[in-house]
Amino acid sequence: MEAGIVGLPNVGKSTLFNALTMSKSAQSANYPFCTIEPNEGIVSVPDDRLVRITKYIVPKKIVPTALKLVDIAGIVKGASEGQGLGNKFLSHIREVDAILQVVRCFEDDDVIHVAGAVNPVSDIETIEIELMLADMQTLDNSLPKAERSAKSGDKEAKLRVEVIKKCLAQLQSDQPLRKMTFDETEQKAVSSFGLMTAKPILYVANVDENDLAGEGKLVMQVREFAAKVGADVVPVCAKLESELAELEEADRLDMLESVGLKEPALAALARAAYHTLGMQSFFTAGEQEVRAWPIRVGATAPQAAGVIHTDFEKGFIRAEIYNLDDLETYKTEKEIRNAGKLRVEGKQYIMQDGDICHFLFNT
């Protein structure tokens, strides 16, 4: 799963990306379009349940789940018409599964705002409009071909025509596609177009060091906007997080304590991005490793087994599952089994966040 970091130029995207991926590279220059190609990185998703499990099952290694991030260069007004480096970067957004929009919520005369003034809601709307216009172009270009195929009796093409027209009507009413509900066949058609406003979105409020909790006026504007569209907001001071990322563990903890934080805000951001992608984690635990595995919310037990290895899904027999509360109560898997708390689940079982599993399968 991939999330693309987007935003207007000079909102702190690359600073945030470098901090997230623990990059030691130099910060980008203070002018638009300094990121010419999208940067990619992998970030671990912090999960304290891994540590809690290892109090009772001591492994040789601990493996958290991870998220792939793509840092996409700044989008400007007119990007859908090729302004700036428009279409090149819009194409990169089409390839990701979710959008993390960094919104500037700090004042700094030394950092030029591309629009001349700091207005986070206006920034959000600028990018939303560009993505909607680009989606309309994609759909308009796809409609004639789909209509020709539909005339020949192609049922799939008929569905595509219906979906295209349904999506165009939504966009023409100035509403993004993520607000729409699609059935499974419609969703497949929508996904094939790489429509950007159909992707889930998370707003990252880049705050200054005096508003780490994100309670200032500018962040509250973002929170109000996000509440209307059903999106989450995570306040992050990219400048501070960049400094934290450069420190050794002990120094990092001291600095966090000095600013009143229990963990880097990037930890909360990684978890929020994971949630925005519609993902949850299950665990496997043994002497070799304790590991978190990513699955989509609503996945079945065989699909979870398939995340570990495709053969596990093909030959799935059953899953033996318990939860962390049981482990903390009974201390060992043997005692969990003796207490009758080890559940045996079949092919129809819907995985729950935090399930600790053993899968039985035929090869």
Secondary structure layout plus pairing:
Layout: E1 2-6, H1 13-20, E2 39-44, H2 48-54, E3 61-63, E4 66-71, H3 86-94, E5 98-105, H4 120-151, H5 155-172, H6 184-193, E6 201-207, H7 217-229, E7 232-236, H8 238-245, H9 249-259, H10 265-276, E8 279-285, E9 289-296, H11 301-308, H12 310-314, E10 316-322, H13 324-330, H14 333-338, E11 343-345, E12 356-361
Parallel strand pairs: 1-4, 1-5, 3-9, 5-6, 6-7
Antiparallel strand pairs: 2-4, 8-9, 10-11, 10-12
Largest sheet: 6 strands, mixed
The overall average pLDDT, rounded, is: 87
Tell me the total number of β-strands: 12
Content of β-strand = 15-25%
Percentage of residues assigned to helices: 40-55%
**Globular, elongated, flat, extended or rod-shaped: what is the shape?**
flat
Taking strands numbered 1, 2, ... along the chain, how are they ordered across the largest sheet?
A: 2-4-1-5-6-7
Number of helices: 14
Distance between the termini: 27 Å
List low-confidence stretches.
23-36
Walk me through the structure.
Helix 4 runs antiparallel to helix 5 and helix 5 (155-172) packs across helix 6 (184-193). This protein has helices at 13-20, 48-54, 86-94, 120-151, 155-172, 184-193, 217-229, 238-245, 249-259, 265-276, 301-308, 310-314, 324-330, 333-338; strands at 2-6, 39-44, 61-63, 66-71, 98-105, 201-207, 232-236, 279-285, 289-296, 316-322, 343-345, 356-361. It contains 14 helices and 12 strands. By secondary structure, the protein is α/β, with parallel strands linked by helices. The strands form 3 sheets. A 6-stranded mixed sheet has the order 2-4-1-5-6-7, with helices on both faces. Strands 3-9-8 form a 3-stranded mixed sheet, with helices on both faces.
